[in-house]
TrEMBL record:
GO annotation, cellular component aspect: sperm flagellum
Listed Pfam families: WD40
Keywords, comma-separated and alphabetical: Cell projection, Repeat, WD repeat
Gene3D superfamilies referenced in this protein's UniProt entry, alphabetically: YVTN repeat-like/Quinoprotein amine dehydrogenase (2.130.10.10)
Record-linked SUPFAM superfamilies: WD40 repeat-like
Subcellular location: Cell projection, Cilium
Keyword Lipid biosynthesis found: no
InterPro entries: WD40/YVTN_repeat-like_dom_sf, WD40_repeat_dom_sf, WD40_rpt, WD_repeat_EMAP
Domain of life assignment: Eukaryota
Source organism: Cathartes aura
Name of the protein this chain belongs to: Cilia- and flagella-associated protein 251
Amino acid sequence: QQRSGEDDGCDGSASLVWAATPGMLFQEDKQTRLHPLSLSWVLGYNSSLAVHSLTDGEDLVLLYVSSHTVVIHDVLGNRQYHLQGHTNVISCLCVSEDRRWVATADRGPDALIIVWDSFSGIPVRTIFESHPEDGVSAIAISQDAKYLATISAGTVQRVCVWKWTSPTEKPMCSTELRPEFGYQDYVTFNPQNPHEFVSNSKTQVIFYLWGDAGLQYGAPLLSSQTFNSMVGHFSQSVFHFNTSQALTGTSAGKLVVWDVVSPRTPSKELRAKPHSMKATKLVPMQKDSLTVLKVFESCVVTGDVKGQVKFYDGQLQLLTCYSHSKVGPIRSISFSKIPPDPPGTSPACSTSCIASSQPFSIRNFILSTSDATVLRVATDRTNFEKVMEEAKKAVNAIACHPRQALVAVGSHCGLLKVWDYQQTKYLVSRIFTEAGIQCLSYDPEGYFLAAGFTDGSVYILDAISLQSSCKEFKFSRGPVTHISFSYDSEYLATADEKYSVTVYKSVLQNGSRCWEHLAGLHSHYKPIRSILFGVQLDSNEPRLLSLGEDRQLVEYDLNNSSKDHLVVLHRDRVEQIAVPLCLAWYPQLSTESFILTANNCYKMKLYNTTTKMCRKTLLGPTYGSPLEKIQILPTTNTTEPQKRYLAYITKDKVGLQILPVDGNPHKSSAFICHPDGVSDLASSYDGRYVFTAGGKDCTVMKWEVNL
């Protein structure tokens, strides 16, 4: 659309970018949500990628990646803005020197490179089919923010240079690298010259020079024999700030110094070529492995596996260091935009520090560690303030409280957190060191939270304090995959990877409620897909069903089951060829009561709850993969009780469907939520939010529902 009153050929998005100012993102009121599901908040982030500070002054605005989304997080204002455009998990990102332009790239089918304006949140440039085979493994932006360097993620890697401000879809120049150089996964430009950049793998550093003659590179050799000293694996490389040198950090705690070794011909053109870069020195800096290397103003900055950040001058003399006993291996360092007031003395370190001979000023900086923690370091006070601490392993378990705006999130690293999703803040957490959390469930009253673990143990916790309300149980032989309470909170059932169902019963002891093991049964011969408690139609007694990939729907007789003897009431085969994947009680929309199932052939089936006879087969949502989990969305609508909705997840999407199911493909919609696979689904007690857990991407996404 043209700007009103002007005919300058400038589109609407360009004018919005032109007028954008820092901090504008969070000033705008969020527009009316136009989609059935819109991303409202993201918990967790990709700790293998850098976290950038977009801040100037006392504000704290972070930019990081969560799965396929870039999150701009105003920590003090407790607000998030999401940059959405990638369909695959983002593999690399870079930020311009002035923090305005953010370039992101992904790996996988239809891989994209997107350049965003961090002031307005607008994607100003999208490059399609940059590396069509495998996507992008590393990306860098030049100091003047005009050029991008990218390295593809394939076995034969291609290096490209792009002028992203021009509309052409072709790179300015490119070259292929030989496989013996190793997998190049880090790249950065020379701040003094946008025509030079350097990349490295664990074993090879490559220097590049591009121009009208194309892209040339030199790969100087370096081994343990070169300086008769162990080199270690390379981590990151940078260009020196005031010489022709370049530096590379190694896992042996050393810095390799590269320099132009002049050939005999004095021609300037020959000396500038990357072929003349050679390793001239190997400087031992420390014993611990160096993970991060940066040049900042007139300092060389290193980060290591012990969580230490050290500042060196141009001659690699130590100026100062910051360390803290509780900081893990450093993944990235990002400095704030405006320097603090210059102190009269050099900062002192919190645990170990060497004073410098002359006072110098360092800006505050943000650290991210490989164990998913983000810290803010105020250099004048040398205090390490924890900003975020997230799950560092797969997040497979989420459960919503039945009466309050709380969601519990469990991770394979043993971290259990309860989060208030209305106030967007963490309330309480607990770390289990013995095993990882695989599944979670609140009881219908919201007093207890049951957790199933990867070692087969089951904990029943107080829902508020997360303290154990009784001793843990260990009756499952494999990881517990499903856990559920009955509607009257009398029973708790679990399913495990060894195809067994185990039932626990609530008992009163000394006037207080506790739990005891009732019985277990190896009731399936293939993985159990779902366990489901219901209510008998003629009485209010609970009933229990389990569904397996063996196509068996098993109903258990809880009334006649006794200690160590779980009685099976019915065993029905619900499919002939297809494999059933999920199960739910269908809402009472007619006089007949149904169980709803979905199978791997995109079919949904309604079974009579009493006879288990299939009454209807319909087409389900078809979005690239079958439904993995389904949940009837809770409703608070008393005026129209017949208006019900179904929330579901497929392999990588979350969606909603209008009930009753009738096979109409236009009655459902879906959105990519976790490209590497969704592991769990939960809906809030009032049906206003849906939560998805992303498994190995370590994130949980909160989706606002707009029916």
